[in-house]
Hints:
GO terms for molecular function: GTP binding; GTPase activity. The protein is α/β, with parallel strands linked by helices. It folds into two domains: about 1-160, Rossmann fold; about 190-285, Conserved Hypothetical Protein Ylqf, Chain: A, domain 2 (Orthogonal Bundle). It has eleven helices and eight strands. It has helices at about 25-30, 50-60, 80-90, 115-125, 175-180, 185-190, 190-205, 210-215, 225-235, 255-270, 280-285; strands at about 10-15, 35-40, 65-70, 105-110, 150, 155-160, 240-245, 250-255. The strands form two sheets. A six-stranded mixed sheet has the order 3-2-1-4-6-5, covered by helices on one side. The longest helix is centred in the C-terminal third of the chain and has 14 residues, at about 190-205. The model is unreliable at about 140-145 and about 290-293 (pLDDT under 50).
Amino acid sequence: MKSSLKLVDCIIEVHDARIPLSGRNPLFQETLGLKPHLLVLNKMDLADLTEQQKIMQRLEGEGLKNVIFTNCLKDENVKQIIPMVTELMGSSPRYHRGENLEYCLMVIGVPNVGKSSLINSLRRQHLRKGKATRVGGEPGITRAVMSRIQVSERPLMFLLDTPGVLAPRIESVETGLKLALCGTVLDHLVGEETMADYLLFILNRHQRFGYVQHYGLGSACDNIERVLKSVAVKLGKTQKVKVLTGTGDVNVIQPDYPAAARDFLRTFRRGLLGPVMLDLDVLRGHPPAETVP
């Protein structure tokens, strides 16, 4: 990415709108900071943006003045990106590229935040062409800095897609869990049941009780085992387990907790539990959990 910078006029950083204040790779700002920079907060339809103004003020305080909330899967939502980028580049010196009439952008971000979806939407919006990059629901689809992809004719504009890059050190346990909930880390590396437990904690803490209605629970509950048991029974996710007794083996029907946890996470990620702002604690000044060693 650093070696390609000399070709780049502007950086577009894509991040998840549910974690606008945490989880971004600080090395992006340090190593790519000389270029004009637009922060695109994707998946806004999944985020509770009640306090959007406060979020924008916090980001501006961190030096990020060019921020846009959007949903990259909907072409009409990316209309304003090219005009914003054009204006940014017009007010910035192009160093040794002033004689070159075409523009080159670099799309960066942590894994699975929608970089490829953004590129494909821009191509459909401005060129009426199909997808140029692979899109997936898990991190690690884009594996290398690709060749230039055209996204606009007037002005002539190309994009460099890049693989998702996490910070080498996650600032806290809680930030790591937020990133995992947003799908930037493969679930099995963290553990579905651990993630489901943290998700339940967040939903209850922010009084987001959509899960109670969705799964037909009697009331809110802070015990993840009880919640997953109810989810498993409702979905028919059970398994036979042999139990040794004094009189021989007995087959017992048990809830499939991992399968229930996977469904709980999948339902959250599809927005079926309602919009959620995972960074509400950061916005309100609560200290993060302990730092990961």
